[in-house]
Specification:
5-stranded parallel beta sheet
Length: 510
């Protein structure tokens, strides 16, 4: 190892890990990655290849249901019928797959609003400076006239596109037209909307096969394995799979890790200068418990997820079950009577994946009444909403992985008020939202964190502005766990930007 370089260990191969590794390499540092790195099972790969080659949607769906039926769990997302990406133990869902949660994610990118983070110990300008770096890595596609980019201070210099033939659908166009018809009225009431910014490798390769929620069979949706493959060409990058870090300790200004090798089923010790915890919130908590850094229960905040229907009145067009199922419209609203922070709603076109995965009891009717259901539901679309953590339920997690839910009793009432507000504003349009709400389990959305909020004082379980808790000096948490709160807007860009801010501070440019 060169004398002027530090040995940095990064955990996992998800988006946090790969963007951190890319940033460290840009700083000319040496990076070692340790990852469990589970690959998809043979059957999953077969289903994916078959769907690619013949696009027989129902054949693939049948195969998925056969594999997943025995272990089906609403909160467990399946990659072509396989649970390889997730471990389900006591309601805690960890990813041990190569690529982490990017194997199955919404790919919707929008930072927190500047007003939402005005009381943080870091400035919005500290985050904005890394937006382009991240957006280049994950290949964000946006619409040039998306007013939300301006409202949320996301002026990305990317290849804007006015055309979205690969991912557009008739329902989305109709909803946008209706919203635009009363745009000024909505804006005066602090309700803003725009097409989603989505991390896509090549939107024009989208076949509208409807499998976005199972993991894109055509690799159109960005997966951090792509970044991993690119980084492998750098001589300072060393990727190691089939390993799991059990615990760590700091000694003599170094970090010593105990690592389990799944291949030979043995433990060994590894030393580094800096350790970056980037392997997912619950994996990080498990590691902190095992390392005796945290010995008491921690409170994990979340952005409560809820699902409800929207309706297009007098909608005549046909809809296709084989459709792109990613979020198409983001709707952001302020209701000071509920919260001073934005409420976030993602609008999805109707599809059988959305319908049956969101309301899984309908699966019983899937084969018998599928065509009838689509005749009934063609006027409907799905909305997935998120509340800011200040008005959401939270959970306490103990070192023994015992979970206790802290229920916010006003959640359903607040959601009803949100839907009522929207309907009051939309009376002169052909849109209506139904107060038929399903509250998702507390950790189902994966929008969790703020267990160790950054603070100038660093008291109790708070972290400093370098993501360090307790007496940690060379171990840094790069995860939403250190955000002061979990706002409702998509967490990815804000969390990653904060991670890179930390690396910039540790390794400042000369």
């Amino acid at each position: 190892m060169k004398n002027d370089l530090k040995k940095n260990i990064v955990l996992g191969s998800g988006l946090s890990a790969m963007t951190a590794a890319a940033k460290l390499l840009k700083k000319n540092q040496i990076v070692y990655v340790y990852d469990v790195g589970i690959e998809p099972e043979k059957k999953s790969i077969e289903i994916k290849n078959n769907l690619r080659n013949n696009n027989k949607y129902f054949d693939a769906l049948t195969d998925i249901l056969k594999i997943s039926r025995k272990n089906y769990n609403l909160n467990n997302k399946f990659h072509f019928g396989s649970s390889f990406a997730y471990s389900s133990k006591k309601e805690i869902f960890n990813s041990y797959s190569k690529g982490g949660l990017t194997n199955i994610w919404g790919a919707n990118i929008l930072p927190y609003n500047q007003m939402d983070i005005k009381n943080w110990i870091i400035a919005n300008s500290d985050l904005v400076k890394n937006y382009n770096f991240i957006s280049d890595i994950i290949n964000v596609k946006s619409i040039e006239n998306n007013s939300l980019n301006e409202k949320f201070n996301y002026s990305y210099k990317n290849k804007y596109s006015e055309k979205r033939e690969g991912i557009r659908d008739d329902q989305t166009n109709k909803i946008l037209n209706e919203l635009n018809s009363i745009k000024e009225i909505l804006y005066k009431e602090n309700i803003f909307f725009g097409e989603t910014n989505i991390a896509l490798d090549d939107q024009n390769n989208c076949t509208k096969c409807g499998f976005c929620f199972y993991g894109c069979p055509h690799d159109v949706i960005f997966n951090s394995q792509k970044t991993l493959n690119q980084l492998n060409n750098n001589e300072n990058f060393h990727y190691n799979s089939n390993y799991k870090v059990i615990n760590f300790r700091e000694s003599d200004n170094n970090v010593v890790l105990k690592i389990y090798n799944y291949t030979n089923k043995k433990h060994f010790f590894e030393k580094c200068d800096k350790l970056f915890l980037t392997n997912g919130s619950f994996n990080i908590l498990e590691l902190l418990f095992n390392s005796q850094i945290i010995n008491e229960q921690v409170n994990i905040k979340q952005s409560q997820q809820f699902i409800f229907f929207g309706k297009i009145k007098n909608y005549k067009e046909k809809i296709d079950h084989k459709i792109n199922t990613m979020a198409k419209i983001n709707l952001e609203m302020l209701m000071n009577t509920i919260s001073k922070k934005f409420i976030h709603i993602q609008i999805y076109p109707m599809s059988d994946v959305i319908l049956f995965e969101s309301f899984y009891r309908l699966n019983f009717f899937k084969k018998i009444f599928q065509k009838l259901l689509f005749l009934i539901f063609k006027k409907y679309f799905i909305c997935i909403g998120y509340l800011p953590s200040e008005i959401s339920s939270s959970i306490n997690l103990s070192p023994k992985n015992k979970i206790r839910k802290n229920q916010n009793l006003n959640e359903k009432k607040n959601i009803s008020l949100i839907i009522k507000k929207l309907n009051d504003m939309l009376k002169k349009t052909n849109l209506k939202f139904l107060n038929l709400v399903k509250l998702m389990k507390i950790n189902a959305s994966f929008h969790v964190g703020a267990a160790f909020p950054m603070s100038k004082n660093k008291l109790n379980n708070e972290s400093d502005d370098l993501g360090r808790i307790k007496k940690m000096q060379n171990v840094h948490i790069l995860d939403p766990l250190i955000l002061p709160e979990i706002c409702s807007t998509t967490t990815t860009l804000t969390s990653l930007s904060n991670n890179l801010r930390i690396i910039d501070k540790i390794y400042p440019d000369e």
